């Protein structure tokens, strides 16, 4: 294994100390440390990611890239690949706090309308008992720590989780997933059958739905432009052909319009690639190669889909 240089160490330390970093900030840091720009020296950047990931894998950590689904921005962060939540959330959070976090994630990710968030009030009323698993619900024994987990403890926990970027609280009173959750929960989204975006194949937690009730297609808002810029698609759902009616007030389907962060993401958005599946092509979108390099251990995409009505039944709505 290649030894890590002080440059690798500095990048890892920055991610450990500061938490997930926005792509442009991470690139800037990379440029300061290596005196090379990821835009001009993509190969070097990818080599850095691979070298760091090889070293990190020994401690079951991974440097990963993901998109924040609310604004479409790419972030880089370190993820703990140990599977239980206790190690992921560290020693900072108690068992009922972790159960509460899981309840919030489930409520957000399994929402059939893919709004990407729940109201603060709804979050405060989530029941922790559902997180005890089969053993807990069968024995009807609720641990006192769960029973005594008051509204004010819940409020405090939401604030702490938001501080650590596991959650994000919006000014209009919604609890959304934080960047750290998007980084960390990719395999959880897949094993829990969270329907994926038609374009990039990542879980569609915050996404637009096809207006045809019987159709399961959902697309991230930031992926929509790419889907609809294909002239042949006539701005229609790729599955059922229904005219796509965007609910986003600011989504205008101008082909020449580029992503807000395209500047930092290099050249590939201008390349027209010919592939049969929309997904693949655009997933590796603007900076796909470096995200892919940071995601070398990503499991294969799950193509299972559920209909909106079965989603309602599944989560008991
Ligand atoms: Zn997408
Ligand atoms: Zn459709």
CATH architecture of the domain at 86-133 and 144-194: Orthogonal Bundle
Tally of DSSP β-strands: 8
Class from helix and strand fractions: mainly alpha
Order of helices and strands: HEHHEEHHEHHHHEEHHEEHHHH
Shape: flat
In the predicted model, the low-confidence regions spanning at least 5 consecutive residues are 252-289, 295-307, 309-317
CATH superfamily of the domain at 86-133 and 144-194: Winged helix-like DNA-binding domain superfamily/Winged helix DNA-binding domain
The distinct bound ligands, ions and cofactors come out as:
zinc ion
Which fold name fills CATH's third level, the topology of the domain at 86-133 and 144-194?
Answer: Arc Repressor Mutant, subunit A
Identify the strand order in the major beta sheet: 1-3-2
* DSSP summary: helix tally: 15
Main beta-sheet annotation? 3 strands, antiparallel
First CA to last CA: what distance? 52 Å
**Helix share bin:** 40-55%
Strand content: 5-15%
Oligomer: single chain
The level 1 CATH classification of the domain at 86-133 and 144-194 is Mainly Alpha
| Rg measurement, Å | 20 Å
Mean pLDDT: 80
């Amino acid at each position: 294994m290649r030894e890590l240089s002080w440059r690798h160490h500095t990048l890892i330390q920055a991610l450990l100390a500061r938490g997930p970093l926005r792509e442009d900030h991470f690139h800037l840091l990379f440029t300061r440390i290596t005196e090379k720009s990821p835009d001009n020296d993509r190969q070097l950047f990818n080599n850095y990611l691979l070298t760091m990931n090889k070293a990190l894998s020994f401690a079951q950590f991974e440097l990963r890239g993901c998109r924040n689904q609310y604004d479409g921005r790419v972030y880089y962060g370190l993820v703990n690949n140990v599977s239980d939540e206790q190690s992921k959330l560290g020693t900072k959070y108690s068992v009922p706090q972790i159960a509460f976090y899981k309840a919030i994630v489930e409520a957000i990710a399994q929402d059939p309308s893919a709004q990407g968030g729940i109201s603060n009030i709804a979050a405060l009323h989530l029941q922790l008992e559902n997180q005890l698993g089969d053993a807990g619900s069968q024995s009807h024994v609720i641990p006192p720590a769960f029973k005594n987990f008051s509204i004010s403890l819940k409020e405090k926990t939401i604030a702490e989780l938001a501080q650590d970027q596991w959650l994000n609280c919006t000014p209009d009173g919604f609890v959304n997933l934080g960047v750290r959750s998007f980084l960390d929960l990719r395999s959880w989204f897949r094993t829990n059958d969270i329907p994926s975006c038609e374009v990039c194949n990542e879980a569609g937690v915050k996404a637009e739905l096809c207006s045809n009730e019987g159709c399961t297609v959902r697309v991230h808002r930031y992926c929509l432009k790419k889907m609809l810029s294909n002239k042949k698609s006539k701005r229609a759902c790729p599955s059922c052909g229904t005219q796509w009616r965007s609910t986003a007030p600011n989504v205008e389907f101008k082909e020449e319009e580029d992503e807000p962060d395209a500047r930092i993401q290099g050249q590939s958005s201008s390349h027209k690639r010919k592939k049969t599946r929309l997904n693949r092509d655009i997933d590796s979108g603007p900076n796909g190669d470096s995200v892919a390099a940071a995601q070398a251990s990503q499991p294969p995409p799950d193509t299972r889909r559920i209909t909106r009505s079965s989603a309602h039944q599944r989560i008991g709505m």
